Amino acid sequence: MADPADTRQSFGERVGQWLDFKDAITLYSVLNAGVGGAATPPAGASSGAAATLQGELARVRSTLAEAIHADGLLDPARTTKKLHPAAMPGSTEGSADFVPCHRYYLAHQRNMSTSIGALRVQARAVLAEHSPALKRLAALDGVLEQALGARERSLLATVPQLLSRRFEQLFEAHRRARGDAAQPDDPDQWLQPGGWLASFHRDLHGVLMAELELRLQPVLGLVEALGKEITE
Predict the structure, then answer these.
(1) How many domains is the chain built from?
(2) Cys bridge to 138: 4, 125, 128, 144, which one at CB 3.0-4.6 A?
(3) For 7-29, what is each residue's pLDDT tens digit?
(4) Taking the CA atoms of the chain, what radius of gyration do you get in angstroms?
């Protein structure tokens, strides 16, 4: 749906464009700070904290994924009426409005942002209590979240816009395929297997699951770093 711009810049150069002068100074300070200031807890305590954090990660991921799966998006018998594009006030026969799907997607984005944000703070707190090196990693993650968070939110906010284009494409293809059909268009058939709206809902579901995994990446990195240090 979007043509990526060709670039000859390195990864570092591109990330540098996301950082303002103040962020760069803070990031430099964290990267060049000493590693003192955190005592290493007993091995048993570390393993317990790591297990607790891994369990919380699994719980948050499962809860958010279940919220996406349980709403019946892929089941025409369970899809809520408020998500049907033909149910918008003022809709005319044979019309479709992306607004219900847009609201639905934004609600899941808010849910993910809240739950994963709290989990990320918890993960940093656990790492900061484990060892000096992991304390610095936690501080680095905090700086990066603050520095890159606004840009990340801005980019993720464009996902519903791209989905809107996909929605319009599929609906237009459906109308062209019908042509001058004698029978009036039946919105209830849109959600049946092979229907254009059922296809769109599969796309919407897949994108939501992909965004969930994307948002979890920083937490996964912190958890893996903690597990690696304990193992070694």
Answers:
(1) 1
(2) 128
(3) 788 888 888 888 888 888 888 88
(4) 23
* 6 within domain boundaries: no
C-alpha span between 98 and 84 (Å, rounded)? 9
pLDDT value for 108: 94
* Long-range CB contact pairs, 151-155, < 8 A, 24+: 151/18, 153/113
Dmax (CA) of the chain: 78
Q: Which of 143, 144, 124 is nearest to 134 (CA)?
A: 124
CB 123 within 8 A of CB 53: yes
Output the CA–CA distances (angstroms, integers) from residue 169 to 20, 48, 50, in the order listed.
38, 51, 47
Rounded to 5 degrees, φ, ψ at 2 are -135, 135
pLDDT higher than threshold 90 for residue 79: no
The answer to whether residue 133 sits within a structural domain is: yes
What is the domain range of residue 66?
Answer: 12-231
